[in-house]
Amino acid sequence: MNVEGRTAIVTGAAGGIGRAIALRLGAEGAKVAAVDLDGEGAQATAAQLGSGALGIGADVADEAALAALIAQTEAALGPVDLFFANAGVGAGLGLDSSEAEWHLSLEVNVMAHVRAARLLVPGWVERGEGYFVSTASAAGLLTQIGSVPYSVTKHAAVAFAEWLSVTYGDDGVRVSCLCPMGVNTNMLNAGIDADDDAQQMGARVVTHAGDVLEPEDVANVVLEAVGDERFLILPHPEVLEFYARKGRDYDRWLRGMRRLQAAVA
Fold it and tell me: Is residue 150 flagged as an active site residue?
């Protein structure tokens, strides 16, 4: 899809990958609503985008808030053509992760995507086009050493994106799923700087496995993939080989992951 002149909503747009995607969309001529729980941060991103962009503070896991921000965007910028479900959280660690941490992870990393699609996809099917971009993680393909809520919910985000594509791809709805490894964001840096060894483990695995990219580099790959209407977006190309190894011999891959876990512990 050519994004020029299109209306796009980007969640988690106060910083990191979301902010970079929003700015790149603006540079390509899209009309952008930058959305984040951090409303001031969303407005700062919109200010960088210039006149006409929206900065909206909202909890994107709340369906009523999603409906309101979609209505606000369409009133100001026109019908939504692209939705970037980018907001995410990394809550909890192992089996001792609390019910609250599981709930937050499921709500933001999965149900926010489901609720946005529920609101947008019927209209896209009626119009014959629309684009849903899900930010998952390489952890959604390969499993995250460390945080079980993060790993499980990112797998679910990948599965939901796949389901959307299978179910609505012939109705004009395009779907892409972004699965990066290490990106220089607050989430990764918080893990690196954590005092607790268990909290550091996931971040150490990510930095051990490949390069840590800048959000702008990821945004460039995302916009290229959207232009090509490509489902799987891998800013770290090596993820595809890791994924292929997993599929070829699951038991060998599990043994390798245990060795990796021991190496970074």
Answer: yes
